[in-house]
Batch of 4 targets.
Target 1
Amino acid sequence: MKSTRKSYGEFLVDMGTKNANIVVFDADLAKATCTVDFKNKFPDRHFDMGIAEQDMIGTACGMAISGKTVFTSSFAMFAAGRAYEQIRNTAAYSHVNINICATHTGLGVGEDGATHQCIEDIALMNVIPDMNVFSPSDDISTHKILMECLNLDMPKYIRLGRNELPSIYSLNDEFHLGGSHTFGNGIDGTIFATGSTVCTALEAKMLLKEKGYDVRVIDLYSIKPIDKATIIQCAKETNKLISIEDHSVIGGIGSIISSVLCEEFPKKLVKLGIQDKFGKSGKAEKLYELYNLTKEDVIEAFIMND
Amino acid sequence: MEGNTNSKYLENICKDVRKNIVKMIYHAKSGHPGGSLSCVEILVSLYKNIMNITLDESGKRVDKFVLSKGHASAAYYAILSECGFIPKEDLVTFRKYDSYLEGHPSNKIPGVDVSSGSLGQGLSVANGMALAKKLDHKEGYVYCLLGDGELEEGQIWEACMSANKYNLNNLIVFVDYNGLQIDGSIKDVKDVDNLNSKFESFGLNVQKINGNNIEEIIEAVKIAKEKLNDRPNVIVAKTIKGKGVSFMENKIEWHGKTLTKEELEIALNELN
């Protein structure tokens, strides 16, 4: 079990050793975002901007324009939220090669509660022209997606999380901008998931199998650009469609999939996610129960929706 | 000092830049003449005398410039055109749908490193450029031009703290202190008074000059580089909004307004 923020921290140390051009920004959250190991190992290449995320994004853009390989770190609420307009106007509009790594996404934040649980960052980043959005779901996918980011000369937002997640992928799996990963080829249904909900979807898939339903799971690790072809293929080949995300259903993957379906192959989609509400304090697992984001909720949604 | 130090020569360029500003805004039927005309001497001094805009071995310009007050785009494009980045004949396409000369600067424009115009954001970017130079032990300075009204944005002060933290003595910031913003006089809207002590208390060296005087601008930069080079520098440049066109000078309504044909003719006559 490992959180994707932890994997991010390990990636930075690993690549920081190999690539002296990498610089890391943080905004007084180096322990929480897991950039602290990089900070200790490469103090000259770690910039703690204090509690000033807007300034952090701008400064990081200046560094990136000057040729540095830049990673910025903060909670999603303060990156996508507080610094939204800096990301839009300075980073994306100028097509800056910046890696905005946002930890603490969704209800997975847990006890800090609603003010710190960013349930709208996918929506905020997706709507910015030229922005690219990744959402890894385990240790290997985080490493591989961040490696892919090193080769992509464009603004990128990488959605990471606080909660510990099981290993899903093997080292042979590959991740590309605009790609997705398909688990299984069942035709009874498709469960679309991203980030921390991929493991929930896979657990639901196993339980549904016991009940006689063969479904497939799609990990939409690239949220923008989205893998339209796979979404349409699943809509054509499988019976029921469900999406699950630790994000608002407004503007999240459920909305994005709906939009693709609406234009290309209209079909009902049941959207599990946060239903236009704020989060609250509590352990992440309890919150997932309260907000209907458990494997049981997926199964119920599958069986109830005929 | 890289360029021509003859102030008569620089003053003539200022006249040409001002003529282009009013022409561009006339043809665009919109734009920001007041804040473009106020910073002409600063831009001309920087681009034609102070800055080294040649490329280093890594293909980056030795000195960099960020126009944080992006609504002065007409002045920016006019000086970029004087320096050969933008073809002169393109200037009249300013703000038009089939032109690359956006209302506010975009980095798709030759010579422009970063988009700007949403106020308060440029100083952070300039800091990042100055920090990168320090990290790579590169020579050169980063210049940033702020508006005075822009100082009402909180991010500017976040950036001042960063410039101080990283001791960016390769950063020279100008404030185009023309005293007016869209809703009125800065004093009435939200005063940025005691600017010297504000910047000083944030850890920056401050000089106060007449920002429409080329010799004072060049001298202030020299002092920043030679005598005040222990810390980042701010040059508070007192200017006249609408400078050079009598009916625009110190008039709030010329913040963002086009000229009639008659007004253009009067303006061009005055600038000759």
Target 2
Amino acid sequence: MEQSNSAIRKKRVKAQQNIVTGLCLACMAFTVGWSVFAGVVSHKNAVKAALADKNTSSKAEVVSKAEETSSQEDMPESSQDENAAVDSFAPYAQEEGGHPYAVAKDTADDLSDAVFIGDSRTVGMMNSTDKPQATFICAVGLNIDTVLTSTDIVQGDGSVGTLAQALSGREFGRVYISFGTNEMGWPYTDVFEDHFTELVTTIQGYQPNAKIYLIGILPLAQSQDMDGDAVNNENAKLFTQSIKAVADKLGVYFLDCSAAVADENGYLPEEASPDGIHMNMDYCLYWQNFIIDNS
Amino acid sequence: MNFKKTLCIILAAVSVTCAVASCGDDKSEDKGGNTAQTQTESADVAATADKLKSDITFEDSLVEFDSGKIEKILGVAPDAYKKAKVYVSSTGATPEEIACFEANDKMADIIKASLETRVTNQKSTFTDYKPEQAPKLDDAVIIVKDNCVYYCVSGDSAKAKEIIG
């Protein structure tokens, strides 16, 4: 009896030992298996991250190559993904038969000494420009009657203010002035000329050493031309003559940029504009590049 | 017995080593995981901006802004955000635009304030110049979710809100 109790006790102890051993081995196996799994997952993540970086730099290379091909300046550093740059700018490569102003011939001119003053068409150039050093003082709806008093003019830091605030405190080498589209409904061109003269002389007061260029009114699309309102190509030409007269009177430069954007019939192409007046990015850049090459 | 003891010690050492290594792997896994998570979060603002652009019908053509233009024109400095994607009218004809930011710490409200100022300034000009565009600004969508700021001016603010969520 005692021997059988002892045997039972021994068996029980052995079984307990085996259970504990088994549990320990199971824990060890779990730990080893878990660490292997963690290592594999970590490796996969690292590989994914490396591939993502590789794709990003490949696309950046494509952008860089496109820029080299077109001899464009380097884009500014951006905290954003550079992938999108591929889709966001006009074609730089000037292939045979490509637009003559797709790329500025004067690649050295970064417009860093230039300021563009104007209305919503100038806002379009501001939004589309590939020259980050250029300065834009403009506003939608601005005209030569309101430009000297408007407080809605972009100041270059996200705020708005007056023309005087924007022009003060910095000296520019070139000032490009582009108005007239919003004034085509004016009945008298001499009033237009008087206001334009006042604007130019005021700007000369702020920027006495700058070369001043008055920009002729760009053409409109045929659909806009036939719309029946005052904003049409006939008035554009009429008021452009007034702008030229002001330039001649004040001894400043005049630029007719129509060649940059007009088709063979003198119209702004329909595909250049959503409304027949304001130009899309490509045409804003053609306009900008024409200015670079002709001033 | 000695063999068993030795084997037990070895197995215990191996399991402790693996446990420590797993903890070490946890850190790299966390880094990898965090990187993946950050990439997902960063990609989200860009993906949302692209979805707004593709799924809403815009009257205007939109051009993407780089950080310089975002600062000069929208008034949001680069140090305010980790990631951003901004599309603005390329023509100046409409106030249509999209801006999605993953803000840096405590910068979401500052970004939101800049965008609200932008809407106010745009209203000031478009209300007189093109009054038919003013409703788009009246219905401008500005949503802050955690540290992300979403902004959209379009003709379909309901769709914009649905996309942003």
Target 3
Amino acid sequence: MAEISIRNVAKRFGDFTALHSIDLTVEDQEFMVLLGASGCGKTTLLRIIAGLETPSQGEVWIGGRRVDHLPPRQRGIAMVFQNYAIFPHLTVFENIAFGLRMQKLPQAEIDRRVTRTAELMHIGQLLKRYSGQLSGGQRQRVAVARALAMEPDVILMDEPLSNLDALLRLEMRAELKGVLAESKTTTIYVTHDQVEAMSLADRIAVMNQGRIVQAAEPIEVYRNPAARFVGSFIGNPPMNFLPARKADNGSWQVAGVRFDGPQAEREEIAFAIRPEDLHPAEDGLPAKVRVVEPLGPHVLATCEVEGHLFRAVLDSDIRLRRGDTVKLAPMPQRIRWFDPESEESLQPHR
Amino acid sequence: MEQRSLPYLLLLPATLFLCVFFIYPFLLVAWQAVSQDGSFTLEHFRTMADHWKFSTAFWNTILLAMAVVPLQLALALLMATLVTRMGAGRDVILYIWTIPLGISDLAAGIIWLAIFEQTGFLNSILSSLGLIDQPTTWLGYQDKATIFIAVVLAELWRATAIVLVILVAGMGLIPKEYYEAAEVFGAGPWKRFVRITLPLLRPSIQTALILRTILAFEVFAVVAALGGTNLPVLMGETYVWQFDLQDRHVAAAYALVILAISIAFTLVFLRTLRVPKEARI
Amino acid sequence: MTTATATAAATAADIRRPARLLFAATIVLLCAWVLAPIYLLTVNALSSPDQVNAFPKSFVPGFEMGSITFFLQFGGVLRALFNSILVAGITMVLAIGLGAPAGYALSRFEFRGKGTFRIMVLMTRAFPLPLLALPLAVMFIRTGLDDTAIGLAIVHTTLALPFAVLITFSLFSGIPVELEEAAWTLGCTRLQAFYKVVLPLVLPGIAASAVFAFVISWNEVFAAAVLTIENRTLTAFLLQNLDVSPLHLKFAGGAVLVVPALIFIFAVRKYLFAMWGIANR
């Protein structure tokens, strides 16, 4: 049992606040992804959980034990680093066995565990090599095997795939997901790659400027962003936003078109729609086409609606030319609304 | 807690050592130079300056540094440029050129003594070429000019290597793309050297000049080996006052003079060759 | 068209050939400039005393051990040789023992006072350090360290310590922090992580900087001459006997001084440039 609980954790470096009062609970055996742009504090949070950084305030609990005053070795964690951190003076075998030797396990047990995890990560034939003789992907496998061999309650991963080339990343991603599900550990995984986050996570915690903006299941994060930032960060291309002015009967006027919206004591709020939730229709929003990019199955049209940037992902059968004006209608159930000041979602969550 | 105090704990031995054996002795030497039996006096500086050898020693030291350091910089720049253009054999050549780095000034003096002494190799060559009949004296007490030249050659031979190492290390930090870009924009080899290498190398040149100038003011053993007492220099006079004349105060005054010109030149180089942090590679 | 291009190419090659020749000739000449004086010293050292003092001199060694054996049997030489090795050995241990922890702290921690410490270390390079020997001579007489190997080694350590700090700083900075952090997460304490992961990786570099410290001490003349009387090091011994000793003694002594330095520089050649690249900044 290893539930991780982060309570009111903050981290300041001099005048700079890297983390503002973070609260987060990760269930036992859950795969939690911390997602955000570089500098958002996600790696700092991971390092605080690992014990590599000391929080300025707050508590970290792992498996019902308060650990924020303990050094990394006493926290029952294992970690995979962005640049793998394979010890260059040790063989692959000794790298994987390193933590086991520190625990003074009997040689037979060490052999058993090293062989098992090496087989699991398909590096059984590399055990006698040194780090310098391995490819990037192989180093990655060694790093994961080294963490798994510890049979830890918690595995922490800091952008483990970001140094691999695109194809290898795809392959390792699927493999990691399988192996970690098998190992029944609690995982916290840091990445800036939203596709990676979507594909791996049980839950995603989206971070921005030292705060967790939303922590929810991937599809929830995608469909119902809790804040404008989440919508604009997740999705490629990201969500479109247009200003909406209050009209009568609780409806809102967007670029001359009326939509039913939320109750709000404001004259203007933000209307949001994902580019793939648009289709050409006579009663749509008037969009002037600026750039057309055919992408195979779809065509990405970058347009302008009343001077605002507006993208649409449309069926590639639709013929578009630069300078055309098309009418694009949003799917009504996919429209989201945001408060312009707090930037929080105005959509009552279903 | 451990995190906070650990770096200080690690620095403590070196700091204590430097305080006791670097800062404290410097205060002592300064006090020794300006005091007599516990009270302040400039008497020792007067004794020093009034001695007939002082101004000779002072100017010899300065002139030697002025002759040696610029030549070294030019020679090292040439060597460094050649090395960076070499393909195969680069390591061997670099090793050969850096050999004098490990040779002490005394050994260098003795090596050049083998060339310049009366029965030395220079006279042997000249006589075998039929240019002289009798061995010429190069390092006698009247031959100030040839002693000077011999010292310059020996210093140039011995201490150019350190400048070379600093410059080669500095050139290694300059990305190749800058040269390629300059070449694309039409800069020839000379222009590339003047417009790219020299400006980007400025921090290294600064380090090399400061280090070499300070060491040049400390020139001692080479002069002792080649010229004996015929070419007085500041460091040699310090030694003479300390031992032969047994006056520690005047020796301390000499030490302060060397220190003063060292600091003065360091400041000049820091000033004139300053590179703003934003303009560094 | 094709002929025109061919002619153009040929002209380019014609222009390039003399340039290449000049390039190669300069390199050969500079190698000769560095190597010839050492060769001449070797000729002297490997000739008998009579050959050394003969005129004109032969440019090939007589391959006689006369000078060397004379030198080694000369009173006090073996003792001076032993003292040199002893002092350099102590300097090596002190410089690394004090410098490496400081280098580690500088490379791994951000803390208040870091800048001040760095400046203090860099400052030592801007001072004529051998002059420290003057006040220390007095201090050592009071503490009983006068004329001892440890006393001289302390002065040599102030010379070698800044280099030791800067070199080890660059060595430790070259080891990714993640390696240490990985070791912590795998069950190591700070100390265990250091000797299981960091130490094996930096050991060759530490050895190189130790060798560097050894050479600095081995070559130092001034402080050695000031601080030792009975227990002369080799450099101090040679300096003291410059006026009185015969030529072949000087040359044999010079050769004995040079040989270890050559070996040492060869041993650390890989680190010379990396060291200075970092120390520049």
Target 4
Amino acid sequence: MLKDITLGQFFPGKSILHRLDPRMKIVLSILYIVVIFLCKNLAAFAFITLFTAAMVVLSGISLRTILKGIKPLIFILAFTAIYNLFFYGGDRLLVKLGFIEIYYEGAMYAVAMVVRIVCLLVGSSVLLTYTTSPIMLTDGLERLLSPLSKLKLPVHEFSMMMTIALRFIPTLIEETDKIMNAQKARGSDFSSGSLVRRAKALIPILIPLFISSFRRAGDLAVAMECRCYRGGNGRTKMTQLHLSFRDFAMLFVILLCGAAVLLINRFVPGFSL
Amino acid sequence: MNKLELKNVSYTYSAGTPFCKKALDSVSLSFEKGQIIGLIGHTGCGKSTLVQLLNGLLTPDEGAVLLDGQDINRKGGDLRSVRFRVGLVFQYPEYQLFEETVYADIAYGPKNMGLSKEETDRRVRETVQFVGLSEDCLSMSPFDLSGGQKRRAAVAGIMAMEPEVLVLDEPAAGLDPIGREEILGGIFSYQRKKKSTVIIVSHSMEDMARYSDRLVVMNRGRVLMQGSCREVFSRPERLTEIGLDIPQITRFMLALRKRGIDVRTDIFTVEEAKDEIIRVSGGRHRA
């Protein structure tokens, strides 16, 4: 069912990751991604995996949820692994099966790539999407980008658009479900026939969906105007963001982690990218 | 013979998650052929779940839905053909209109059934008469119709499939009194002509009292009462207990009786009430 999509979903909670300032979380995510790409050898990858696991534990989000989030990427992960395993050349030949040659370097590279993708996905979703409500996220983004408004870029409008878009994803999913059921009741068949026929069968869903989205957008605009919404000029926030000690502590931890990775790269021997 | 039956049907949403919610709890019902059945109950009592079980959009966790004695969810069964036999009109069906013309939209169901052009044409023209749309509307875009007209066009889209059982979820919700009258009247005349079974989900006791042959009252996923309108409305305490209403006129008769006037209270239409009051007042009535 469409309702079961969890990727990019917020799970309310009270963990330290939940309570971080969203601005800091965005900065931390960027730093975290940089650190992942700094990893050069297996020891560094092991270290970053442990670090990511620690973040998952800190967030208090169940392992099942996290695994469910990775599931849609299994195909990409498998493809990456196999591609690197078979086509990455090197000097230490491990196996030779006809035209297929697997090198030690290729195997290591495959492992490194998979670890990198999984850490990237799990870490950033634990830091951002799972533990930050969409409102906080766009709020943080708006504040981070606010210097750009000096250049006459519509930062507030941009973040408002994002907030609204995020807000309406579940609504649209529900709506799609409803319309699909209604058309099924009239004998629509979405799951059989040629590709063209299946694409055609989507028309009875897409048109009502578009129409109701436009209607919703119009209604929302009227409702906002009724409350005198006039864009970002002179608008204040009900909740002000404050950086606190824990935000800086986390920043320190991430920087430390980056330094550790650099040291491991340099001083621990073994396979290196 | 029973056409459509529910046997000990239970249904739970999101089973096995913290959000799980039991919507239906071993419900058994049978719908006789050729009757109009009113399904009433409070918001969240499982009515909408029940109607989606009737045509196989949802599959019961326990129990079975039987159409002519056969389980519709049996292995190798054809759910699509079940949906042609049990037509379901959702709440606010006007939001599912999509074709370029009203004609094409009403013809969508019959076309999916694989009917000939002539037969489809006959059905479209017949159903618009039932729901009271003029033939000029047929060539219009459904999005140019008024709200009430859209609703009627959407209902016609299901009627045109001529299902043996027509199920409507709140067909009159959000319409003005004239709109309600038109849509319910249309359903009524369709039923009289086709002799099909009609199941209507509604909040309005007045409407149900007027049109249905039998009432089913649901509460918290269970069937609380069923019977003729007279039987159900003669026990107003049970209805008000679960937050439902009785028709205004029944309440009026109850109030009269409380004041010491000896009227019958198993009355639920204004016409009946008029006759009863005339009878009690000794026929001193000047026409």
